[in-house]
Write a structure and sequence with these properties.
The protein has about 475 residues and is mainly α. The chain has a single domain, classed as Hydantoin permease. About 70% of the residues lie in helices and about 0% in strands. It contains 21 helices and no strands. About 55% of the residues are buried. GO terms for molecular function: cytosine transmembrane transporter activity.
Length: about 475
């Protein structure tokens, strides 16, 4: 049998996405595929929410602009030297690689949690797009404190958008990548245009006037906490903790020809998580000067953070289109990742059907505005829960020889449940979540300590268990 036929057979077995085998050489992709995907995924609909949410925390100019510069650099370095490095070494999905270490039963619980959290995140993207689609229908926009759907128009728009996004994601990585490459230039241009128009509306004509928009910061809005420089740095570093230090993007970078493709994440971080966040914050700064916003603030209420109207007020119909497309480019790969997580639980189901299931759950989540309106808190919790599992893979890859442990021990010993993994995660999660709640510590501040402790405990417990 020729190499071509072997790879064709592997692809048929794997449902076209190589869920339980390494990606073959013929299917590897250049850095250009990842550049478009990351620029599209991270210059996204949620950026229209996160930028304004920073302003609701009373952040200062220096803390926001310099803090984001440093935090996003740390995120890029994490992707390049951890995620991409390990991905091109083994070329396996996160879920299959964890199964080899953790055992089938333990990783099933992780996959379920991971898939659900991805669905909730994708739901927030659908919420964002819905705020744009609803403008021509004069739809009432969700408020910062809203948790439930606010009307039938909202429900119908979310259901239609969710169905379309799910169908695109179900076509697999090729379609997701192509969609991102096509949409991302339009979205980036829209963010840039929004920022320029907002500066004009604010009457900014110099760097000092731009700096003074935030100045020394202000008191946080009702229900928000005050963000400092380190809040911005650490939150922006771990905004995608599940993807980089949590290793979820092994599923993406397994298609990369070289680990250097990890540098393409800088397109997402500095176009999306820097320029786009600041541009969206400028849009919200314009809105905060309006009589409507001032009236809400004087009554002790937080003004609405609805991406669609913010973009529409700046650049018109192009703003509506941009917000819709931005929601798609983030929801698509997020639903794709969720589908892979669910497929690891039910491998007999095709990639198409597990992605449709994930898309359905994401659409249901999108009906509830709370996932988008509380996005800063949700993203911090999401990363904190999932990131320590990535430490298991990282510490085994880099330190298994020094620790004297067997790699992929669950596979080698035919274990269904690796206690070393479970106790390492449970202790690190439990200890630092308790510290966060008991002593009111910002959750993102304890993500790195929890990640490091989980990795160290895994090595210690593995050595003890493997000896016995």
């Amino acid at each position: 049998m020729s190499q071509f036929n072997i790879e064709e057979e592997i692809e048929d077995i794997a449902g076209g996405e190589f869920e339980r085998v390494p990606v073959p050489t013929s299917k590897l992709k250049s850095w250009k595929s990842f550049l478009g995907m990351y620029a599209g995924e991270h210059a996204a609909g949620t950026e229209f929410v996160i930028g304004p949410l920073f302003l609701t925390t009373g952040v200062s100019a220096f803390d926001l602009i310099i803090g984001l510069l440093l935090g996003n650099l740390l995120a890029v370095l994490s992707w390049r030297f951890l995620t991409a490095e390990i991905a091109v070494k083994y070329r396996l999905t996160l879920y299959y690689q964890l199964e080899k270490i953790c055992g089938k039963n333990l990783v099933t619980g992780y996959n379920l949690a991971n898939g659900l959290l991805f669905c909730f995140l994708a739901g927030a993207m659908i919420t964002v797009s819905a705020t744009a689609v609803g403008i021509p229908f004069n739809m009432e926009m969700p408020k910062l404190t809203d948790t439930m759907p606010n009307g039938m128009t909202w429900v119908i728009i979310v259901l239609v958008l969710g169905a379309l996004i799910s169908l695109i994601a179900s076509k697999g990585y090729e379609t997701v990548s192509k969609a991102a490459n096509w949409m991302s230039p339009v979205i980036v241009l829209a963010f840039l245009a929004c920022g320029i128009v907002a500066l004009s509306q604010l009457g900014v004509g110099s760097l000092s006037e731009f700096w003074n928009i935030w100045g020394e910061g202000s008191e946080p809005f009702p229900g928000q906490i005050k963000y400092t420089f380190w809040h911005v740095v650490i939150w922006s570093w771990f905004a995608n903790a599940a993807m980089h230090v949590g290793m979820s993007d092994l599923s993406v970078f397994r298609f990369a020809k070289k680990a250097s493709s990890g540098w393409t994440t800088a397109a997402g971080m500095y176009v999306g998580h820097y320029m786009a966040w600041i541009a969206a914050a400028l849009l919200y700064a314009v809105y905060l000067k309006s009589p409507e916003a001032q009236g809400l603030l004087s009554n002790g209420e937080a003004p609405t953070v609805a991406p669609g109207p913010l973009a529409y007020n700046a650049i018109g119909v192009f703003g509506i289109i941009a917000v819709v497309l931005a929601g798609w480019t983030t929801a698509n790969p997020t639903i794709y990742r969720a589908g892979l997580a669910f497929q690891a639980i039910v491998p007999k189901l095709s990639t198409f059907w597990v992605t449709i299931i994930a898309g359905t759950l994401a659409t249901i989540a999108g009906l509830f505005p709370a996932f988008a309106m509380k996005l800063l808190d949700f993203v911090a919790l999401y990363g904190f829960i999932l990131a320590p599992f990535g430490a298991i893979i990282v510490f085994e890859h880099f330190f298994h020889k020094q620790a004297g442990i067997v790699k992929n021990f669950a596979e080698v010993a035919n274990l269904k449940f690796n206690k070393a993994v479970f106790f390492a995660w449970a202790i690190s999660f439990g200890l630092f979540y308790f510290i966060s709640v008991q002593f009111d510590v910002f959750l993102s501040f304890v993500t790195l300590p929890a990640w490091l402790l989980c990795g160290v405990l895994f090595l210690v417990f593995s050595k003890r268990i493997q000896k016995s």
